[in-house]
Amino acid sequence: MTAEGRGRGRTWVVLGLLAFLALLPLRGLLRNQGPPMEEGFMLVFPERVLHGALPNRGFLHLYGPGSLWALAATYKVFGVRLVVERLFGFAQQMAVVAGVYLLARRWGRVAAFFCAAASCVIIMPPIGLTALAWVGAVGLGLLALDAVLAASGEPDERRRKRLVITAGLLAGFALLFRVDLIVAIGLAGIVATRTLSKRDRKTLYWTTVAGVSPYVIHLATAGPGHVLRGMVLDPIIYLRGGRRLSIPPPPSHLEGWLQRAGELRKIHWPFPVLRSPAQLTVWFFVLLFAVFALAFTGWRLVRADRTSARGRALFAVGLFSAGMLPQAVQRTDSTHFAWVSCVPVALLPLALIEWSRLRVSWSPRTRAAVAGVLVLGLLAFVIPRYTVQQFTDYVAQTFGVHREAYKIQRGPRVFYYGKKQVALALPPLMRDLDRYSRKGDSLLVGTVDLRKTPYSDAFLYYLYPELKPATYYIEMDPGVANAKNSRLTDEVRKADFLVLSSVWDNWVEPNDSRNFGPNAPNEVVKKSFCRLGSYNGQYQLYERCDLARARGAVTA
Q1: Residue 496: which of 457, 539, 443 has the closest Cα?
Q2: Taking a C-beta distance cutoff of 8 angstroms, is the pair 542, 529 a contact?
Q3: How far is Cα 115 from Cα 117, in angstroms, rounded to an integer?
Q4: pTM, whole model, 2 decimals?
Q5: How confident is the model at residue 102 (pLDDT cuts 50, 70, 90)?
Q6: Closest by CA position to 128, among listed 92, 77, 181, 76
Q7: Closest Cα to residue 475, out of 32, 35, 31?
Q8: Helix, strand and coil percent figures for the chain, each rounded to 5
Q9: 77, 266, 371, 401: which is deepest, by most CB within 10 A?
Q10: Residue ranges per domain, the chain?
Q11: DSSP at 106
């Protein structure tokens, strides 16, 4: 066998090992609880799009429309099913891992394996397989960055042009998913395009514009005012006060409500580790260090040799990571840290490899292996709670070990919930809602006290596709749904049925989510709605009284 053939064989071995690693926790993740609001709206929003609803106009959506369009097309082909949504989310995660692998491949197969493995361990656990737009955008952005860097060193003009066009379209699609990734893409692009000819740069810019051009359709259909409020004002101005946490996260306690809820599930780990809050604090500084290390090392390499392809790649990915940092800072919890760390922390071995060249005379493979083991050791022994520990827990669940998810099913539609009290409350609630509701009725899912809207059981809309969501706030956010000028009061008044949850009554965070909004929605419930039932202390079902009397429903 030729050297080239042996090289291809080793590459396939590496890819096979990475595929095996990614598939190990997949069954556990597919059957695990998803976040009730986030996964709920990623099931509901694209289905609403299929029925003609417009993001930012028909329902609150804080990001670009690209993710919803892609999921809507997927649902059109394969059906609106939880497994379809989760496999789409898995594909997005693998796009991130593939982007990391391709970028690290410049340092050899061993380095690429360790970097991609670290990225896989970081990106898969935090929010399961939920197909959120950020992960898809990062995956597309990384693939675009790799294509640009590959084009810079490609002598064949036709191949170089294809790479440039591919990079531009991928970058445009990434921005269509998350427009806020423009900082990361822009910073990385400054370095990555430096050696491209003027003609190639022009091609890149115009294909990027082509990729992002569907925003014109979105603006024309949803309306510029609705898009401005939904994608800019709501997430940046009105929502931030109700979601922010301390910077850096305190080492003594966890501030995020969902983070604290996750701590109720104890995962055995055989090694002594820091307490979870301390791990989160350490992770914050590890993330900052990784971003700095990549950018600084790349800058030094480029400064020493302007033709250095590795230096330019490292500098570009360091700037890309710096552009993602606002995602980690806006809410300092493990999910947002993972969404950023999957790039700079996973690629940190590359900086360690370059530093080791100045100190030791190891072979390239040894140098890459040591650097990779050090970073994986960091994940396993310093900050394992939200990375390796959770990853191995999902692997265990794949094989049926300590699985704690309860299947909620209505007809062919399935959702998984991790809280037993809720799982017990939902079947009788759904039986009553089935009994009283008719196709075409409207349903509003909210909190028992509508003055506070920190979260939503949006998955219930997915379980009832024949009922129309009665509210713009399928995703309920503090400072938005319960704002003084929100449309929630009018929407409650017009709804046919209400499902009000007390699951989130104890939501306490050191931010504006503690603040009460107007009491008007509660007054409408008291005045105009009749309670049909209360379920295990978790939910209450209401019907508008005029409808209840007309249908002969018995009020509680």
Answers
A1: 443
A2: yes
A3: 5
A4: 0.95
A5: very high
A6: 92
A7: 35
A8: 60, 5, 30
A9: 371
A10: 3-231+277-396, 417-551
A11: G
